[in-house]
Amino acid sequence: MTTQDAENVKQVKLDFDAECPSCSASIEFNPATGKLSCPYCGYETEIATPEEQEEKIAQEMDFAKAEERGNFNWGVEKKTVICKACAAETIYDALQVADSCPYCGYNQVMEASAENTLAPNGVCAFEITDKQAGDNFQRWIKGRWFTPKAAKNSAKPDSFKGVYLPYWTFDTKTSSRYSAKYGRHRTVTDKDGNTRTETDWYSTSGFYQEFIDDYLISATTRYDRNMMRKIEPFNLLNNKAYKPEYVTGFLSERYSIGLQDGWSQAKREIHDHLSAQITSKVRWEKNADVVSNLRFSTTHDDITYKYLMLPIWLSSFRYKEKIYQFMVNGQTGQVGGDAPISPLRVTIAVVLSLIAIAIIWYFFMSE
Q1: Where along the chain do its domains lie?
Q2: Strand 161-189 and strand 290-319: pairing?
Q3: Are 162 and 130 in contact (CB under 8 A)?
Q4: What Gene3D superfamilies does this protein map onto (predicted)?
Q5: CA 257 distance to own-chain centroid
Q6: Cys-Cys with 151: which of 51, 63, 81, 340 at CB 3.0–4.6 Å?
Q7: Is 113 within 8 Å of 72 (Cβ atoms)?
Q8: pTM for the full model?
């Protein structure tokens, strides 16, 4: 290890003792029971529930008061963890919050935040098991019409990896002043009896307010964002205040997309949402057929955020020497991923569609 590498390695503490009091093996969170259990001796214990209601779920945090807003460079920062079970030293990416010792398998839950990062304040725990995730995958791939039959029959997921990924959620009160043009269509008949559509245009302006609740933004750059969107939504209301007990037995990572960049992305997406909402408002209020030249400016007030750890099952399967990855939502079981495509099946679908269009056109012309 170079001197520079040594400077980048930080000694960190463990937040949670994952040792089974019965047999000294590693205990882990069990999605089937919602308890901590030992896979070796069967020992189970409840996770302590706070007495105060506000301590049971993740609380909204004041965006303006957040001190650490920047991104976190996981490619540079490293940390070393000493295993409580076998005393082995392991170097991890600084983003990792939970993993198991590669030497003895002991579940390790490390500190949730570093000196220059925020700590998660909520977690949505796993609600489905790896077996249920595998069953959902089998149903998902069998429903892929363009996937070759051989792939459906042979696709067996590799061992599942349960991962808690970091997300930001944002609440904001939006107030938007807008101006736009709207048009109403009318049919005009000329002297020869031919008809055409003309549009009468009018100007309008107004004010639109909407409260945005728990707008979700992924805080990791490690995974395919398009695939992650396929397994949304998550049940964000079913969250719990962060406890290290919930992540034991699973991989988990802290954010690499910081609070400020997360909010910037959220504002862009919220702007697109507001554009669609204001357009619908104008169409409804003015009985308009079309809306154009929409211009608006938005003020955001009372911005709050939550930093949540959300559960995902990761796996892959091999078909014709190619690896296809997929994800399963750890709460809902929704599956998203890649699957092989059969060119023959696609060609058949296109041909059948063209035949159907030709038949409909034929009967239409005949009448």
Answers
A1: 170-212+262-305
A2: antiparallel
A3: yes
A4: RNA polymerase ii, chain L
A5: 13
A6: 340
A7: no
A8: 0.83
